[in-house]
């Protein structure tokens, strides 16, 4: 299976000279055709910046990229602006977290979906029908009304379904979903996820789903990448990762998600916040070391590289966990 | 703020100029070289001549002295009107927003009506009804600014009134007056002061416009706005007669606006 | 559309009634009311009584109020003491003049204000942006009646390019039909009116328009910058839309309500400014009529002019609101968040 997307040594940084902050730090990964990959991590870990970087959408003072992002062999970071525009929405489309602010409040749903189709010469005479059908497919029961509606006139769940339709409209090869259900009610979350899953399965689309919700990961993804402090610290097939996390941070994340209690009966938490990761980046060690219970002196002086740790998994840790079964 | 870096300069400069204006106005009797009402030389003596550094006006009165004395009504009205508007508009809005409900609706409808008259027209009509004097200028310019403050105070107060601490204060049975003045007021004062800082210039310009129209300070008392008008009649022979008072007014309005700006910035920090 | 629109239309008559009442209150109820300050100095007691009776001022206040409202409803503003003409006729002659000037000033204000704001947005935080921000403060604090005089000095006295006084040169024979020169030039087939009319209009509208544009620059700039940061702009970029189309369809389109609100609100300031500018330039509009009436204590003309200016202002605000309703679908549904 040749990879659809191949990312090599990608860095994203912002700010002027001395105050420059690297948000994403030399990450490597790839996504195969039809593969659904989840990218998990705390807020501030650089996962959203990675998602935006794939179609060069990051905004900010003096935002800069380095490395390579190859989509079917073409390096996105080397594209000129017209080519980049042709790629956006057509080859890579993104679903954003908060559909209310991500939709233009003064245009109807149909206008907003059609605009993207027109930009890529895909509108055609039957565009209206296709939009209606698409909305039906993403689970909107009265697509005829919704096409004419403005974003404020439909419910939050419907808005996210519209956002999904908008992203699917030009049949992209890679769909990026940036926390697609975080802004929704818990009851609606599962339904919307199911809709999304069905739609991408039907099209055989590759998906990168950004989330901090392990439930979403378990329900959708083939493979998981865990991000911490701007780096990917572990990558493995979803079953392997859940059964046998190798990186202490992954383990901690899973413990939190499963409400594991420690010996004294407290719920598992990860001490500190991801912000401390950036504060300590000046040292050359592992970004997680300051919060890691297993950290040893070497962890503070040498940064671990992401390396194969089994047939399918890779981990960036000097002292990965071995065979530690997770028990509730 | 302590260092006089290039960035601090724009902050220090307008406050210094504003201070100078105030100082000159307060010390007018000691600074002014001549009686602003008496003819001290030939009409329209030139600048830097024997009769006064800025020459004389069409009646032979010393221009420098008239400008110095003219600062007094200008500053009194600018600050007085804003003070009046902040106090009255702030109290009105505080009551409306703090009480809420039908009272709020009724009180703010009145403000909507006041807002639907151009500010300067309201000031003109009030001036026409009251007659010209410094106090009446303060009243009329102040009245024209009240709606702005009332709306702001109301918006702020109604947000505060819904917060937990106010509900808590009411729950323990504190009186309505106490809640308004002791609980809500301290939390809306700062934005009101920022607003006050930003309209001093507007008030000064409105007052000068009224005086220019002949509705302000009664001549022959020196007044900047009226000096512009007197100068206009001499525009063909002595352009300085209208340029000078206009500059004095314009610089005041600009510095007042810049100072107002710095009040707002400090709040943001 | 309907709910927001209907609610707005329904408030219009109440607004007009309320403002008419407010002006009545200013004229009658304030201490040292209009009529007293009018007649205190120059009139004998007997004349004063007759004057009061003539204006119906010997009646109780509530009665005067009802009479006042009744005559307003018939567009009857009484007879001017100064000219002997009906105040309604005088308003009909002067209000169009003011509307012309306010319209021209509005064009100046919009072109300069929006133009500068767009430049500032594209050069955000660069030297041009800083310069425009400074310019906007200076413009908004310039005493506009004084700026008028400076313009007269430069363009009329020194350069001799533009006239400084009046609306049309006295040498031109102009018998108004509608009192709008533009319309009359068409009706009467008099294209020769337009040139002199415009040359007289340039300085007053520059004076009022430029000084009002300062606020417009500043507010429109921050409105557009705020809209640019909205997430739907990111969505549009994600869709592969070109930068120009994003700016027009997504950014400007959504900033439009804010921009129109700014322009509408500034129109009020501008209308007030043109009252004064009319005096500076001897422009025969309603502002000059108002000021002259105050000088000559022509009570009914003052009242009529005040009502006319306020009514014009209310109508402009009303139209601004309609434009906002049209531009923003959420306002149409009565959603204000």
From TrEMBL, chain A:
SUPFAM superfamilies: P-loop containing nucleoside triphosphate hydrolases (SSF52540). It is a peripheral membrane protein. Its main location: membrane. Keywords: ATP-binding, Cell membrane, Membrane, Nucleotide-binding, Transport. GO terms for molecular function: ATP binding; ATP hydrolysis activity. The keyword Cell membrane applies. Signal peptide: none annotated. It is found in: Cell inner membrane. GO terms for biological process: peptide transport; transmembrane transport. One of its GO terms (cellular component) is plasma membrane. Residues 7-254 form the ABC transporter domain. InterPro entries: AAA+_ATPase (IPR003593), ABC_Ni/Peptide_Import (IPR050388), ABC_transporter-like_ATP-bd (IPR003439), ABC_transporter-like_CS (IPR017871), Oligopep_ABC_C (IPR013563), P-loop_NTPase (IPR027417). It comes from the Bacteria. Belongs to the ABC transporter superfamily. This is ABC transporter ATP-binding protein. It comes from Gluconacetobacter sacchari.
UniProtKB/TrEMBL annotation, chain B:
Residues 71-260 form the ABC transmembrane type-1 domain. Keywords: Cell membrane, Membrane, Peptide transport, Protein transport, Transmembrane, Transmembrane helix, Transport. InterPro entries: BP-dependent_transpt_permease, MetI-like, MetI-like_sf. Its main location: membrane. It comes from Gluconacetobacter sacchari. The chain crosses the membrane at residues 12-32, 74-94, 106-128, 192-214, 234-259. SUPFAM superfamilies: MetI-like. This is ABC transporter permease. Coiled coil: none annotated. PANTHER family: D,D-DIPEPTIDE TRANSPORT SYSTEM PERMEASE PROTEIN DDPC-RELATED, OLIGOPEPTIDE TRANSPORT SYSTEM PERMEASE PROTEIN APPC. It comes from the Bacteria. It is found in: Cell membrane.
From TrEMBL, chain C:
Pfam families: BPD_transp_1. Keywords: Cell membrane, Membrane, Transmembrane, Transmembrane helix, Transport. GO terms for cellular component: plasma membrane. GO terms for biological process: transmembrane transport. Residues 95-320 form the ABC transmembrane type-1 domain. It is a multi-pass membrane protein. The chain crosses the membrane at residues 12-30, 102-122, 134-161, 197-220, 255-283, 303-327. It comes from the Bacteria. Its main location: membrane. It is found in: Cell membrane. InterPro entries: MetI-like (IPR000515), MetI-like_sf (IPR035906). Belongs to the binding-protein-dependent transport system permease family. This is ABC transporter permease.
